[in-house]
Design goal:
Blueprint (H helix, E strand, L loop, with lengths): L2 H14 L6 E5 L2 E6 L2 E4 H10 L6 H10 L8 H11 L1 E2 L2 E2 L1 H12 L3 H17 L1 H5 L6 H7 L3 H8 L10
Antiparallel strand pairs: 1-2, 2-3, 4-5
Helix pairs in contact: 1-2, 4-5, 4-6, 5-6, 6-9
């Protein structure tokens, strides 16, 4: 294998270390692998891994997807809201409380949960009236809280189940 092949292998394995499944093998002089069951060339692999290099792993994504979209009891958005509300006490927001609630109830990693703690803190600081004194899935609460969504999606690096208005 040429030096460029070795460097490519090291780069791919370094990206795999952040929690993305990457099974490498040598095919002639080219490196290839699989992500999510799809066979990819080395070049495709690098761009796919870079696109999904957020803090949430594929295992975290699967856990969130199992809870599902919407606003119903036990859905991902409802569980996120419940953990956010439970982190509010004595007129302050307790990040560690929300993070432990998320990891316990959603079965996601600490790193992934931290992305959603940011959303909880944003909502606490900017959306109290719309969310705490109304329904968490009301139009006014969602329109305020969703301003932070781009930050969450960039942090997570995976698709997150969507909330629906109640």
């Amino acid at each position: 294998m040429a030096l460029s092949g070795v460097l490519r292998t090291l780069a791919l394995c370094a990206l795999a270390a952040v929690g993305i499944l990457c099974i490498l093998h040598q095919s002639g002089s080219d490196i290839a692998g699989t992500i999510g069951g799809r066979h990819l060339s080395a070049e495709d692999e690098v761009s796919s891994l870079a696109a999904e290099s957020g803090k949430c792993s594929l295992r975290d994504k699967a856990s969130m997807q199992r809870l599902g979209e919407g606003h119903g009891r036990g859905s991902f958005p409802e569980t996120l809201s419940s953990c956010g509300k439970s982190a509010y006490s004595w007129f302050s927001f307790h990040e560690s409380s929300m993070k432990s609630c998320l990891t316990r109830n959603m079965h996601i990693s600490d790193e992934c949960a931290q992305c959603f703690v940011g959303a909880g803190k944003y909502s606490f600081n900017n959306c109290k009236l719309q969310c705490l004194f109304g329904s968490w899935c009301s139009s006014s609460c969602l329109s305020c809280a969703q301003r932070y969504d781009p930050t969450v999606h960039q942090c997570a690096g995976v698709d997150v189940p969507k909330v629906t208005q109640c």
